[in-house]
Amino acid sequence: MKLATPRWWYRREDAPAPLTRALLKPASWVWAAATARRIARARPLDPGVPVISVGNLTVGGSGKTPIVREVLARLRAQGVDAHGLSRGYGGRLAGPTLVDLEIHTAEDVGDEPIMLARDAPMWVARDRAAGAMTAAASGAKLLVLDDAHQNPSLAKTLSLVVVDGDVREDEWPFGDGSVFPSGPMREPLAVGLARADAVVLLLPQGVEPDPELLILFGAKPVLFARLQPDAPPVSGLQLAFAGIAKPWRFERSLRNAGVQLVDFAPFPDHAAFAERDLAFLAERAQVAGAGLLTTEKDWARLPAAWRERVAPWPVRARFEDEAALDALLASALRPASLSSRP
Predict the structure, then answer these.
(1) DSSP β-ladder status, 51-56 and 158-164
(2) Where are the chain's structural domains?
(3) Which of 46, 75, 111, 244 lies in disulfide reach of 80, CB 3.0 to 4.6 Å?
(4) CATH class given for the domain over 51-228+318-337
């Protein structure tokens, strides 16, 4: 059974569950120590091609996948045969497997690889090193890793960490700084930032970067990106649902885009939608005279029979300074840039 992301994780103070957070602190110390030990002991493999890692410092919900998609798109537009590599979370195949949209489903390879495979060759492998070697042997000239900042198995040429920049009075991307499970951090902020080459701050439309947040990144280069709808807003009344780390963000984005929502149903991240749940949503939508709307990632996990009944809402990440992004990506293509940094 999947659990929803606790929203109180993202409170810096006055969290509604202080006792819960305190009781979970010892487990957080164990988690942080285990992560640090695993990274320190690793011997990263050089797959023979540049490796760009796109990861984050928190447990889900920062917007890594749209950034991976945009990085792959820019590299391939420049003539670089870049391939993506993912663990394939939620899929049954251990890999290494090249995603084939004609035969594979989200149940096979995970929802994010299905999305990414529409734009570039996409590999899934629970063993990232094996996946990288297989992809390189198959002709990949560069690899873009999805969600690998805490995975030390491969030598990384360039490490980008994506940070959710939608800061609000009761919502801070790192919460009070606590590591999972007492907070959203995968590792302490300073530790994770030390291995990053640059930060990608993902902002909603019309929201300016928070100066207090920028201070935390110190001298790290910061690239600003924004999620933009890749299609006009769906017309008519809609009942939306989402099974992502921060479903409330999707609801907010829809309302800001002018979508007429009659209701919104949140599900846990990567939720497997049961037939009874979808039938219930469809019945509610019919009563309200509304259509059904969800994210691209959730749409990829829908049973085939439901994909014609539910509309996906596509979004893309757009960088404000594309020249700065291109300069960083170009640095990864220089042979001397490859290191053994995990």
Answers:
(1) parallel
(2) 51-228+318-337, 231-313
(3) 75
(4) alpha beta
Helices (H), the chain: 18-41, 64-77, 106-109, 111-116, 128-137, 189-194, 211-216, 247-256, 275-288, 296-301, 322-332
Task: Give the CA diameter of the chain.
Answer: 62
Strands 122-124 and 260-266: unpaired
Check if the beta carbon of residue 124 is closer than 8 Å to that of residue 89: no
DSSP string, 161-204: EEEE---BTTB-TTTTSPBTTSSSBSS-HHHHHHT-SEEEEEE-
For the residues 171-196, what does the mean pLDDT come to? 92
pTM for the model stands at 0.89
Q: Is the peptide bond before 181 cis (omega within 30 degrees of 0)?
A: yes
Give the three-state DSSP class for 261: strand
Structural tokens at position 283? 């019945």
Residue 148 near residue 131, CB atoms below 8 Å:
no
CA–CA distances in Å: residue 85 to residues 46, 116, 120, 152, 188: 15, 10, 10, 14, 25
* Residue 165: count of CB within 10 angstroms of its CB: 24
Residue 230 pLDDT class (50, 70, 90 cuts): confident
Residue 68 half-sphere exposure, CB side, CA atoms within 13 Å?
33
Q: Helix and strand tally (H, E) in the chain? A: 11, 13
For residue 279, the one-letter residue type is A
| Six token digits for residue 288 | 């309200």
Statement: residue 336 has pLDDT above 70? no
CA gap 312, 297 in Å, rounded: 8
Q: What is the mean pLDDT of residues 289-314?
A: 92
Residue 15, C-beta contacts closer than 8 angstroms, at least 6 positions apart: 8, 21, 175, 176
- Reading the block at residue 102, the tokens are 């004609």
